[in-house]
Amino acid sequence: MPQRTIGEVILEVNNISLSFGGVKALTDISFNVREHEIRSIIGPNGAGKSSMLNCINGVYQPQQGEITFRGRHFKHMNSRQVAEMGVARTFQNLALFKGMSVLDNIMTGRNLHMKCNLFWQALRDPWGWGPAEREEVAQREKVERIIDFLEIQAYRKTPVGRLPYGLQKRVDLGRALAMEPKVLLLDEPMAGMNVEEKQDMCRFILDVNDEFGTTIVLIEHDMGVVMDISDRVVVLDYGKKIGDGTPDEVRRNEDVIRAYLGTSH
Hints:
Number of helices: 10
Helix content: 25-40%
Strand order of the largest sheet: 6-7-8-3-9-10
Structural class: alpha/beta
Order of helices and strands: EEEHEEHEHHHHEHEHEEHH
Largest sheet: 6 strands, mixed
Distance between the termini: 20 Å
């Protein structure tokens, strides 16, 4: 298990229940996330993992329960409001702009930090520079640092649609990092990757957590990855929580063994 300094609780999920019509996606789910930790959510397909992330980042509004982030309670917030609070998200199915370059895709993650409007764009100094131009240069510098961090400098001007899948996943991570989140939600960041791509992504996730101090909530099917990089793991099955603890505690949990691991050995 990784060794790092874990802080106080930064995110609390309290008694969340979510239904679609008569189908219960989540039933009375509670867990917390501590600052600087890597917190994984695991479970079989259809267990409610992505639905849980969608509640945290405001895509879904749960019928019951509430979520507390940095002492602030929210139940009916949209995705932009949650993002402004400091929560960013990657998606299982890539939602990148395939015709745009790597740099421009990651720049979209800076939108929340852009302050200049059309009025400011009309102002110019004697050299033709205005507040909007100066701001864009500053934002691009931050994006270039992310590109360097993710080791994708060679592709910065390449349309994302031309990149291999593993590199597209890296760009998706870069776009989320550009939002400078306090908490980063990763929805199966290694799905569809080969062994080498998974190793690279694991390294970047650990580096994000270590160098940026970003708290990470991770959904991942690869149990080896989960057990290697997680501080704590919460286990869902059919929308209910059946386990919560350190990787070792989860490994020994009989309910988890029956529902997910499939064996007691």
